[in-house]
Design a protein that fits this description.
- By secondary structure, this protein is of the alpha/beta class.
- It is built from nine helices and eleven strands.
- Helix 1 runs antiparallel to helix 3, helix 1 packs across helix 9 and helix 3 packs antiparallel against helix 9.
- The longest helix is centred in the last third of the chain and has 51 residues.
- The model has no long low-confidence stretch (mean pLDDT 82).
Length: 343
């Protein structure tokens, strides 16, 4: 896997059958020579992330998505008799194992294409657990261990809709239950430039309204939709607060350096204070402060129907793929980056 460079991180949100949107975004990024070194994914983002870590690119992943149907992911669950869950994910297990989506041997080896992070929520404690196939750069609670099929299915186990998944002697639900867009794990892994893909309109000034649920599946999907949005807004707010704290620390270091220089001059001392990075802080005083650029956030401008979370159709995939591509173009331009073919 890319051990030397961990610059680019792709954060993939949950969203079930809307995961083809991720692939459209990835296609645009690859066309602009932006390739992830790190992928942090939740739910369907964990599926797509595991595929990328296995060596897939936008083209080969899109070929898989074009064939993916609802019956390949879920079926009516026996749990409906006891009230535990509505749909069974046994078909998804079979699909990932038999249709070439994930190569777990490669994913967990030195040949892995990327540093992968997947999330799942421990039912008994409500805690978000992060699992990874490599060590983090910064101190964290990420669990480095061989990523297996149960890790991916656990990350996809939407409460009430799908059964909980047994993993490491604990039961887990979908990671999106508490954190849909794992910004933190991407940063801990060493990210410097982050692209976040969320399949829900997120702008604070845009009031989003979803249709009234017409059945229990739509009700569960709507509940998940609002959970996805709330977790992302919380993560982004925390990201910005941490960056602001770091900026204050940098300014404090600059002032301390200037005071030290003034005292040395008053004592008649000659000191060569190098500033090799040219940031105004002499290297001898500088600590390893690191302000990350604002994430590039790719999101739709209008809400995608919640029923798409549980439906996997060719028509739906193609529409979402095109939407993801165009939304990536819009976000790329808004970030001040050059669009291929535009002056």
């Amino acid at each position: 896997m890319p051990a030397k460079s961990r610059k680019n991180a792709l954060v993939l949100s949950g969203g079930g059958g809307r995961g083809a949107y991720h692939v459209g975004v990835l296609k645009f990024l690859e066309e602009h020579e932006w390739y992830p070194d790190i992928v942090a994914g939740t739910s369907i983002g964990a599926v797509n992330g595991a595929a990328l870590a296995s060596g897939h690119n936008a083209n080969s992943l899109w070929a898989l998505w074009r064939r993916l149907r609802t019956d390949d992911v879920q079926k009516a669950g026996l749990g409906t008799l006891t009230g535990d869950y509505l749909l069974d994910t046994a078909p998804l297990r079979k699909t990932l194992q038999e249709q070439g989506w994930v190569n777990f041997t490669r994913l967990n080896s030195d040949e892995a294409a990327i540093h992968l992070r997947v999330t799942a929520t421990e039912i008994s404690t409500g805690r978000l657990h992060v699992f990874g196939n490599s060590r983090d750069i910064y101190p964290s609670k990420m669990r480095q261990e061989p990523i297996g099929l149960d890790h991916i299915i656990a990350s996809c186990s939407i409460p009430l809709v799908y059964p909980a998944t047994q993993l490491n002697d604990n039961l887990y639900w979908d990671g999106a239950t508490v954190a849909n867009t794992p910004l933190g794990p991407a940063i801990d892994a060493g990210a410097e430039e982050i692209v976040v893909v969320i399949m829900t309109p997120w702008e604070d000034e845009e009031e989003q309204k979803l249709e009234k649920p017409r059945n229990i599946l739509q009700a569960a999907s709507t509940m998940l939709e609002w959970a996805l949005l709330a977790s992302f807004q919380s993560d982004l707010k925390m990201f910005r607060r941490i960056n602001e704290l770091i900026r204050l620390q940098v300014e404090n270091a600059r002032l301390r350096a200037q005071n030290a220089l003034l005292l040395q001059q008053m004592r008649g001392e000659q000191v060569d204070l190098k500033d090799e990075d040219g940031n105004g802080i002499p290297d001898i005083f500088e600590q390893k402060y690191h302000v990350l650029p604002e994430p590039i956030i790719v999101a739709p401008q209008e809400a995608i129907p919640v029923e798409r979370i549980l439906r996997y159709t060719k028509e739906g995939h193609e529409k979402l793929y095109r939407l993801g591509y165009e939304d990536a173009r819009r976000a790329w331009r808004a970030a001040g980056k050059q669009i291929e073919g535009e002056q």
